[in-house]
Design brief:
Four Helix Bundle (Hemerythrin (Met), subunit A); 230 residues; Arc Repressor Mutant, subunit A; two-stranded antiparallel ribbon; mainly alpha
């Protein structure tokens, strides 16, 4: 387990540590179900245990880690049923975000989302999965922000936190990654036309495809684990 060493501002130390830990969880540097070793993480991140523990509490509130009595913190591992249920809710939130954004987005917001989309395409052609994912997530957040509904945003952030690692890994399949990029092209087109119905449809389709990929990956992992145990 490793992470790039950077200087962390003291004023928001635990928030910066949470940001680094979140990235490690999302990018599978800390595997689902793994225990968060405080001593090791404090050394990797070059911080004391106090801000580290505060950061872990933040991630527990987001649903990325689970705090267990007498066992410390572990990275959340969702079951197939958890995934199905969470993506079902997320698809509705994404669809509503897209519909409202198409009705309410400003020209400046649209231009910013288009710029991020072009950067994301460049990351795709470089096969920079980490960079692609960060821009992808930023685009989805920007669409949600353009919906201008704070209640929707709160729910979106809470549910999406549970799925970040799974959404990241869903693009590791080349064909599915290409499909996801094509769906983003359709989102940009629908936003540009202010077509609320098209945005709702493409975002629901996009999340349904993500769910299918993730469920398939979970099933493959379970099959491989059974085979290895024999």
């Amino acid at each position: 387990m490793s992470a790039e060493i950077i200087s962390i501002p003291r004023a928001s130390l635990h928030e910066q540590v949470a940001l680094r830990l979140r990235q490690m969880l999302v990018e599978n540097q800390i595997a689902p179900g793994a225990k968060l070793n405080e001593r090791e993480l404090a050394g990797v991140l070059q911080v004391s245990r106090t801000p580290l523990r505060e950061a872990i509490k933040m991630l527990a509130a987001e649903g990325l880690v689970e705090l267990l009595p007498n066992r410390g913190a572990i990275a959340v591992e969702l079951t197939e049923t958890d995934v199905q249920n969470t993506f079902e809710v997320m698809a509705g939130l994404e669809a509503m975000s897209g519909e409202l954004a198409a009705e309410r987005i400003t020209d400046a917001e649209l231009a910013e989302i288009r710029a991020m989309h072009f950067e994301m395409m460049a990351a795709y052609f470089r096969r920079d999965l980490s960079g692609y994912y960060r821009l992808n997530a930023a685009i989805h957040r920007a669409i949600n922000a353009a919906a201008r509904n704070p209640v929707l945003t709160t729910l979106y952030n809470q549910v999406n936190a549970r799925l970040q690692a799974l959404r990241f890994r869903s693009n590791q399949d080349e064909a599915k990654w290409k499909q996801a990029l094509a769906e983003h092209e359709r989102m940009i087109d629908a936003l540009g036309r202010r077509d609320a119905g098209a945005m709702r449809a493409v975002l629901r389709e996009h999340l349904d495809h993500k769910r299918d990929v993730v469920v398939d990956q979970l099933r493959q992992g379970a099959t491989q684990a059974v085979g290895a145990a024999r």
